[in-house]
Amino acid sequence: MPRPDLPDRPLAVGELNRFARVCLEGAFPLLRVTGEVSNIARPASGHLYFTLKDERAQVRCAMWRSRAQTLPFRLADGMRVEARAQVTLYEPRGEFQLTVEGLRAAGAGDLYEAFLRLKARLEAEGLFDAATRRALPLYPRRIGVVSSHAAAAWQDVLAALARRAPGIGIVLYPSLVQGEGAGAQLAAAVNTASARADRDGIDALLVVRGGGSLEDLWAFNDEALARAIRACAVPVVSGVGHETDVTIADFAADLRAPTPTAAAELVSAGYHAAAERLDALARTLPAEMLRHLGTAAQRVDRAALRLVHPRERLARSRETTTRLATALSAALARRLERERGRLDTLALRLRTARPRLDERNARCAGLGERLTRAGEAVVLRRRERLDALAGILTSLSPQATLSRGFAIVRDAHGNIVREAASVVAGDAIAVELGSGSLDAEVTASHSEVGPGLSSGR
Fold first, then answer.
1. Which residues form the Exonuclease VII large subunit C-terminal domain (predicted)?
2. Run of H or E including 285
3. If you ran DSSP here, which 8-state letter would residue 27 be given?
4. What is the 3-state secondary structure (H, E, C) of 196-262?
């Protein structure tokens, strides 16, 4: 590998770590590393952080969420795994680590690869399509179980059903659950249960086995078993291994249970819920019965109080009618008395409020005379004032001034001539007198005014 081009100056720590990371990633291709898992951390981000170690060394590992979500098993401390990883350096802290691309159980690499290939092929065929899965019956009458007589899983199923739903019938379809030929036997047992479902009266089928390694559970990764489960005439529940174990049978089944006991609990869930409901009803039934009996007793008592002989009811009705008639007569008499008193009061008020027309007529006549005299006096005063104003207006009239010997002289344009200098000899003038007017011509103009004379007048 060529040496990186380093600058001829001191390197910052970040630069050093970056050069180291580039060198590591360039020197190591994507490789496989095997070891034991420890110190697992699962932060909220979904990434996985753990240590991969052996008896001589250890290395930190990081698996990003996009890869961690595809793991077919739950990673746990102490597991031996084979990691497909990239060697790198975590620059912020200068830590040597592996970026893990994939994980599988160590020592079972070929089996695991075969498992993944078969799963992908059957999934592409639509064998695991969720739309084809069937729901379990709520109250199954009889359950079929595919397992071994000697298997602990068979005893777990019997114990769970005896505890939760002892009335359910159980039919065992025995088969090997491990070793050579176990897959074929399991498929044959499922086919037998499907063919005899009506005759045996089973409503659901459990395929169960306890936990183990990948090799121990390999019979449940058989293709023939997966196809038999999908073709079964009744719904199938797979309860193989522990919670972290996953097989092809789990994907093919209508419902997967994490353990054989959980499979029995799922198939008996309806009976268990019904039993709990019955227990709850049994606890509330006495109180409800007492409440209903008390309500019924009260209704009987009320009905007994209303139950009387017809003769007695008629007598009561007659007494009631007589009493009501008496009360009605008294009420009518009181009402009439009140109305009569009210009428007398209104008549008295009417007589008191009647107007005295003679007095009103005399008063109107007197007011008419006063109005006439006042009008005449006002008219007389207005006429006297009008005469005085007319005299004043007459004395101030230009005509009165002209009648005393004065005259108004106008030039040819009709303008009043106030000064002799405003006309010249030969101008035409008009002279207005107290009686009539004269047209004249100026023969001479004198600006000086003699004693007792007004210029231009």
1. 127-440
2. helix 269-306
3. H
4. CHHHHCCCEEEEEECCCCCCCCHHHHCHHHHHHHHHCCCCEEEEECCCCCCCHHHHHCCEECCCHHH
Which helix (DSSP H) or strand (DSSP E) does residue 297 occupy?
A: helix 269-306
Distance of CA 307 to the CA centre of its chain: 58
pLDDT at 71: 85
**pLDDT confidence of residue 2:** 55
The tokens describing 295, both together, are 């309500």
Pairing between strand 95-105 and 48-53? unpaired
Q: In which residue are the tokens 């101030």 written?
A: 396
Q: Are 179 and 192 in contact (CB under 8 A)?
A: no
The span from the CA of 432 to the CA of 457, in Å, is 10
In this structure, are residues 257 and 266 in contact, taking their beta carbons and an 8 Å threshold?
yes
pLDDT digits (tens, 9 = 90+) for 223-263: 999 999 999 999 999 999 776 678 899 999 999 998 999 99
What 3-state DSSP class applies to 347?
Answer: helix
Reported as a single tens digit per residue, the pLDDT across 336-364 is: 999 999 998 998 888 887 777 778 888 88
Q: Residues 6 or more apart from 105 whose CB is under 8 A from it?
A: 73, 79, 80, 81, 82, 112, 213, 214
Cα separation of 257 and 239, whole Å? 5
Structural domains present in the chain: 13-107 (2.40.50.140), 139-273 (3.40.50.2300), 394-457 (no CATH)
